[in-house]
Amino acid sequence: MNKADVEKYLADTHVYIEKLEKRLKGRLSGVLKYLYQKMDKLVLSKLSLDSEGRIKDTAGNMRLINRIPKILQSYDYLPIISESVADYMTLINKSSPYFKLFDIERQRIEAAKAGLNAKMLRRARVFKTMSVDKQAAIKVRKLIIKEMSKEVVYKDMIKKVVDMVVTKGRPLSHALTELADVFMEGDRIIVEDMAENLGLNQYYLYSSGLVKNSRTFCEDHVGKAFTRKEINKWKGQSWQGKSSPYDPFVNVGGYRCRHRLSPISERLYNRLK
Fold first, then answer.
1. Model confidence over 129-180: pLDDT tens digits?
2. pLDDT value at position 246?
């Protein structure tokens, strides 16, 4: 095993995870467009306007506007959840090539993988958070009422609604925040669980490169080797962007961190420290 082998594996896995995240975001973007179209058909297009194109402050318009939260929460996410869980589970099979770098026989690697399925399915339940939460849906309703009270022209109001629901996807922002790290964290859990089962969980390399907005914590640690004991001490440290709750082997540098703690051999550790 050498550092180049580790980095090659990580680069390949990172590309794969980015594809999974992009696919998930594409699915969610489609949901937002669908929900906007449904809201437009059932509410926005039916609002009564005055001669200057402003929304009338009428009881009928308010009844329509009050339907918005229910409409935004009406989507059945089960197909997306099923597809995403399937994507998530394929990460388990991506771990095998890495552990072959330790000269571990295939049978032991497969045995270590076997116990992961139930754990990862439990982890995959996070996909059930995919929804427009109630507070976000109410914000859309409030936006329209506010624009109506300000006597804003309908077409200008529509631009703001599209921006809130589709362009920026704010109703799903909470879900996206929760899901942003799910594939990355899943991969870390798999590798750490495999390392533990194979007795390879004492020495690690803080892996992957840096980007323009990398945290100082990551800049200070990337490319360096650490023992398990040293890594566990990070739990007692503080830095901007640190996850809460924090597990260094799952969260590494914190929210949206793209780094990994890659198990390495004692020999490589001694060469890198």
1. 777 777 778 888 998 998 888 888 888 888 888 888 776 655 555 555 566 6
2. 93
Q: 190-212, pLDDT tens digit by residue? A: 899 999 999 999 999 998 878 78
Both 158 and 211 in a single domain?
A: no
Determine contact, residues 112/96, Cβ cutoff 8 Å. Answer: no
46 and 144, same structural domain?
A: yes
User: Residue type for 80, please?
Assistant: I
Same domain, 67 and 11: yes
Q: Are residues 37 and 112 in the same domain?
A: yes
User: In which residue are the tokens 């533990």 written?
Assistant: 196
Say how many domains are in the chain.
Answer: 2
Report residue 46 as tokens.
């039916």
Q: Tell me the β-bridge partners of 206.
A: 261
C-alpha span between 207 and 211 (Å, rounded): 13
Domain shared by 163 and 236, yes or no? no
| Nearest in space to 264 (alpha carbons), one of 92, 91, 101, 96 | 101
CA distance 6 to 128: 33
Q: Which domain holds residue 13?
A: 3-180
Is pLDDT above 60 for 272? yes
Tokens of 172: 């799903």
- Say what the pTM is: 0.76
